[in-house]
């Protein structure tokens, strides 16, 4: 599925399958299928081109044509899905002869059912073909391709159609700017720190290239302009040029030459020069000069590569500043410099200054609501300035300001300033590849400020068909992770919920959320809290998301065609009564219910869930429902994801769900025998192997598992043997979490198992522990090249084991729980990648960080007992924190083992030593003592 092309991608694949002999279609029907596929392939190309054009630059006829073709693709996809389901449902497994006469009846009935399905598909393909021909005729009549070609050639580009809304701020006086001082000083410091090299016997200053990156609206261009003006006098020549999202590189070169020397190049724009001639002219001009050049608004590395050819490296201390929204591009340009949001006090000063002239003139009754508004703006200057413009035209009463606050995220109507802000932010959207646009728009199904779990989002993308393999052997989950990371790198989502120093979830800034919801509504991609407000019966809702329950006019419900809905997400019980029976949703792919109480008599009857034959994704999170809900689950032949976070009885027929990839159940769930039939499973949690005794042995056949979470209360020899044999067979396991709650040792895993080379995360918590560090780490840690996250409990932590851990080549996060430990010394050359170090000890801690140890560690957590120094255990509490050069945050938990006379004095002395270490640290890290 694709926001620009509808269901074209999956439909074309299915039409290819439909033409194959296994479906036994008549020759004439096959011919129609092939003709339809060719016509739709052409339309898909046209739709992609239309999708690249900002909606405001499209002719209304083009918009109508694109919407019609997308709807056609969805309808055709539903028809083909239904046909395939009907044929598959009468497949060989349904025709096995149980008794002679009964088997014959079943076989004859199956043949009739298939014949009728083929007759129906013939008629429906003909209808769709007629609609496709009509759409093709309108495409020619409306000259769709010509309209898009004009945009591609820059004739109707936004830059030519309207004034850039950023233009005024570009020329603002520096004294008018708020909160830019620290960002300016930090960038100036980075730029003026010289780097020299010896060349021809002389020391030369190297060319310095810094890329300022961050999301749209953060003030990158403003900062670059301020720094540019500040540093100009120090250089022989300077230029400030913008690239934009649709760059004309020759114009960029000409602009650069004109800025460098207005006299010499005053007529440059009237001269015909190719790129090579312009590059040569720039290199000749800059060859022996100390120059400062700002390249603003870079959107792709190809543009930067062309520009970089013209910027000669002459060892005269020249400087290049670039701005971009993309972290990956920033890293390829030069030294990345992340622009942060405003400090809260600067945000307040900016808001009040724009509205009242100064901060102290804000009426008392508006202080509370203004702080709520600022929180929504997320300390982003563009958002604050936009909302300030709205508030400045609003009466200064709390009621009016609360109305504005409640409107944020809902577009504030057709407000001019909101439109301008959307134009700026939407540049990032239209520069995305088509598949990422679709994934971004899908985020509108989630409420504002919602923390979106990474794995959940990827599963939903897969179920909706948004992720397509780029080549044979591609794993959909891994592709999904790359999509997620790319949206982060492009500053469109904000990472959160870190684990292994990697984001496990994300949030969407309210202003991006507003843009995504606006675009999603325009494309009829997701309908949010407005399923009863359809303006036209012809406008079919494809995805429903009930979030805020502000629906009122229930009589309008008849305008909604429920048979077209592919996804339903509900985030609370209220609002469920606004939906019809689940049986109305004939092509539903995704059903995601959260915090819904679905008890007997509830309007939304989940007993129909097993009749949703197309369902790919079912998530029931913190929902109350009948534990026998899934007794006919075998009907859900296409189900890929099943997540049920409450006790439920899984029927034995669950093992017939051969397409199941992700299964997450409640800890009290008992798995039936035969789980080894689910050979496509990639994720499985949270399984109590004591309650499902056959599972430990069956696990060995689930060879595609990447993520597995197990726990147990008791462990015996036979269970150990079965579990070890199974773990040895999981060659693709990446994330293994074991949560044993008994008192048994984990040494059988430490000594008798060798993990796969794919292992990225190993977590063993609970009450059981290893005696010492597992042998598969001690013997050859260099083999575990992908292990980034390790959390284990040990009876004893030895110095030699700590050194082995330090040789893990990719380790980012380490959590150790030690009953006792030797004196521990971390040395230079160990833990080279580590970002987070967590060590908890039941005894007094004897630890020293050597100078230069753990060079990239940013966070440290230490937990230990404080004893009287007369015992000689804690020494002077000097752990060498000041030697961790990248340290940003330290948490230290102190506790007492015995009641001693000077216990308060000893605790205070420990705190004093720790505070001193933080004070003398060059980074002045945050220290929290608990």
TrEMBL record:
Keywords, sorted A to Z: Coiled coil, Leucine-rich repeat, Nucleotide-binding, Plant defense, Repeat
Single GO biological process annotation from the record: plant-type hypersensitive response
Single GO MF annotation: ADP binding
Domain AAA+ ATPase: 206-356
InterPro entries: AAA+_ATPase, Apaf_helical, Disease_R_plants, LRR_dom_sf, LRR_R13L4/SHOC2-like, NB-ARC, P-loop_NTPase, RX-like_CC
CDD domains: ABC_ATPase, RX-CC_like
Protein's UniProt keywords contain Nucleotide-binding: yes
Similarity field: Belongs to the disease resistance NB-LRR family.
Protein's name according to its UniProt entry: AAA+ ATPase domain-containing protein
Species, as recorded: Oryza punctata (Red rice)
């Amino acid at each position: 599925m694709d926001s620009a092309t509808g269901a074209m991608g999956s439909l074309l694949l299915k039409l290819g399958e439909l033409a194959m002999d296994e479906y036994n279609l008549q020759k004439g029907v096959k011919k129609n299928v092939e003709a339809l596929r060719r016509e739709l392939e052409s339309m898909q190309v046209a739709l992609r081109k239309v999708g690249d054009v900002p909606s405001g630059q499209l002719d209304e006829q083009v918009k109508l044509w694109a919407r019609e073709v997308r709807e056609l693709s969805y309808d055709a996809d539903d028809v083909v899905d239904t046909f395939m389901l009907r044929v598959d449902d009468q497949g060989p497994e349904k025709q096995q002869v149980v008794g002679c006469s009964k088997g014959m009846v079943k076989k004859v009935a199956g043949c009739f059912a298939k014949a009728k399905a083929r007759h129906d598909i013939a008629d429906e393909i003909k209808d769709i073909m007629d609609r496709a021909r009509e759409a093709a005729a309108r495409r020619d009549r409306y000259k769709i391709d010509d309209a898009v070609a004009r945009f591609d050639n820059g004739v109707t580009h936004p830059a030519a159609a309207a004034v850039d809304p950023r233009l005024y701020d570009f020329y603002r006086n520096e004294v008018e700017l708020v909160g830019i001082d620290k960002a300016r000083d930090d960038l100036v410091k980075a730029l003026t720190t010289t780097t020299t090299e010896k060349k021809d016997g002389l020391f030369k200053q190297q060319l310095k290239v810094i890329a300022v990156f961050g999301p749209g609206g953060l003030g990158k261009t403003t900062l670059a302009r301020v720094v540019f003006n500040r540093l100009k006098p120090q250089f022989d020549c300077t230029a400030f040029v913008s690239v934009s999202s649709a760059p004309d590189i020759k114009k960029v070169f000409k602009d650069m030459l004109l800025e460098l020397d207005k006299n010499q190049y005053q007529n440059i724009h009237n001269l015909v020069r190719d790129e090579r001639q312009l590059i040569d002219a720039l290199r000749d001009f800059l060859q022996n000069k100390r120059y400062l050049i700002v390249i603003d608004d870079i959107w792709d590395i190809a543009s930067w590569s062309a520009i970089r050819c013209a910027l000669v490296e002459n060892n005269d201390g020249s400087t290049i500043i670039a701005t971009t929204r993309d972290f990956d591009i920033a890293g390829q340009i030069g030294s990345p410099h992340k622009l942060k949001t405003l400090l809260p006090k600067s945000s307040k000063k900016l808001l009040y200054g724009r509205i009242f002239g100064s901060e102290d003139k804000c009426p008392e009754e508006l202080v509370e609501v203004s702080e709520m508004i600022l929180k929504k703006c997320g300390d982003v200057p563009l958002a604050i300035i936009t909302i300030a413009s709205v508030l400045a035209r609003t009466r200064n009463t709390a009621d009016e300001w609360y109305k504005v606050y409640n409107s944020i995220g809902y577009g504030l109507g057709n407000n001019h300033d909101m439109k301008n802000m959307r134009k700026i932010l939407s540049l990032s959207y239209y520069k995305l590849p088509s598949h990422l646009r679709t994934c971004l728009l899908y985020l509108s199904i989630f409420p504002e400020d919602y923390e979106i779990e990474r794995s959940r989002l990827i599963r939903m993308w897969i179920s909706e068909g948004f992720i397509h393999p780029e080549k044979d052997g591609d794993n959909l989950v891994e592709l999904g992770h790359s999509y997620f990371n790319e949206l982060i790198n492009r500053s469109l989502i904000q990472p959160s919920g870190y684990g292994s120093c990697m984001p496990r979830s994300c949030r969407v800034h309210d202003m991006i959320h507003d843009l995504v919801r606006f675009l999603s509504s325009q494309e009829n991609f997701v309908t949010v809290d407005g399923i009863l407000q359809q303006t036209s019966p012809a406008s079919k809702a494809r995805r429903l998301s009930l979030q805020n329950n502000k629906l009122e006019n229930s009589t309008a419900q008849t305008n909604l065609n429920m048979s077209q809905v592919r996804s339903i997400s509900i985030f609370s019980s209220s609002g469920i009564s606004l939906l019809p029976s689940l049986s109305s949703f004939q092509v539903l792919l995704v059903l995601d219910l959260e915090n819904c109480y679905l008890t007997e008599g509830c309007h939304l009857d989940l007993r129909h869930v097993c009749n949703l034959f197309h369902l790919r994704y079912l998530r029931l999170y913190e929902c109350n429902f009948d534990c026998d809900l899934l007794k006919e689950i075998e009907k859900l032949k296409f189900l890929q994801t099943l997540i049920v976070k409450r006790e439920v009885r899984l029927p034995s027929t669950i093992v017939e769900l051969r397409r199941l990839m992700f299964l997450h159940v409640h800890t009290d769930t008992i798995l039936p025998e035969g789980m080894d039939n689910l050979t496509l499973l990639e994720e499985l949690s949270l399984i109590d192997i004591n309650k499902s005794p056959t599972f430990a042995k069956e696990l060995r056949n689930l060879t595609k598992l990447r993520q597995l979470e197990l726990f147990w209360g008791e462990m015996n020899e036979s269970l150990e043997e079965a579990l070890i044999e199974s773990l040895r067979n999981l060659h693709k396991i990446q994330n293994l979490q074991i949560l044993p709650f008994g008192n048994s040792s984990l040494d059988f895993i430490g000594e008798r198992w060798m993990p796969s080379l794919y292992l990225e995360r190993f977590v063993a918590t609970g009450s059981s522990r290893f005696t010492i560090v597992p042998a598969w780490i001690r013997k050859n840690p260099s083999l575990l090249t992908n292990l980034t996250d390790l959390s284990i409990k040990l009876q004893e932590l030895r110095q030699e084991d700590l050194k082995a851990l330090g040789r893990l080549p990719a380790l980012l996060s380490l959590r150790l729980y030690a009953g006792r430990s030797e004196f521990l010394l971390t040395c230079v050359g160990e833990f080279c990648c580590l970002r987070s170090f967590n060590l908890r000890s039941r005894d007094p801690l004897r630890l020293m960080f050597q100078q230069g140890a753990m060079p990239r560690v940013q966070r440290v957590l230490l937990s230990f007992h404080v004893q009287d120094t007369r015992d000689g255990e804690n020494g002077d509490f000097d752990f060498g924190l000041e030697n961790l050069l990248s340290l940003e945050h330290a948490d230290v938990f102190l506790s007492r083992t015995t009641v001693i006379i000077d216990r308060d004095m000893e605790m205070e002395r420990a705190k004093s030593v720790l505070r001193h270490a933080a004070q003398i640290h060059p980074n002045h890290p945050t220290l929290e003592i608990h």
